[in-house]
Amino acid sequence: MITSEIVKNRPQIDLGLAAVSMLDTLNARYLLGAKLSGKVPVVGTSKCISVKGARHPCLLLSNPNPLSVIPNDVSIGFDNNSCLILSGPNSGGKVSERAITTDG
């Protein structure tokens, strides 16, 4: 029966599903990056972050004039600067800055 074959081959099916899911995620990231003219970050070992002209992707996608989305610059870890305090009005870029400087 087909059910017993699926159960017997479940580990291989799970591996295949995980691989396809990863490829789909990578493809979606690539397509979004291409659509937004994104840049791939350079990752080193210096524990410093420097980003120039970052814009929130959701604001870019939802705004009829993407150039009206104000870019943010952020640098952390240079010149003994190891802390970033974010404050300001709504739609002021706090979420963008947090997304730039963390992995979530």
Tally of extended strands?
2
Order of helices and strands: HHEHEH
Rg, alpha carbons: 20 Å
**Total count of domains:** 2
Strand order of the largest sheet: 1-2
Mean model confidence by pLDDT: 83
The unreliable regions are none
Quaternary arrangement of the chains shown? single chain
Number of helices: 4
Please describe what this structure looks like.
The protein has helices at residues 2-8, 10-35, 57-62, 94-101; strands at residues 49-54, 72-76. The protein contains four helices and two strands. The chain has two domains: 1-35; 39-104, no CATH class. It has 104 residues and is mostly helical.
Name the features.
two-stranded antiparallel sheet; mainly alpha; 2 domains; 104 residues; 2 strands; single chain; 4 helices; 45% helix; elongated
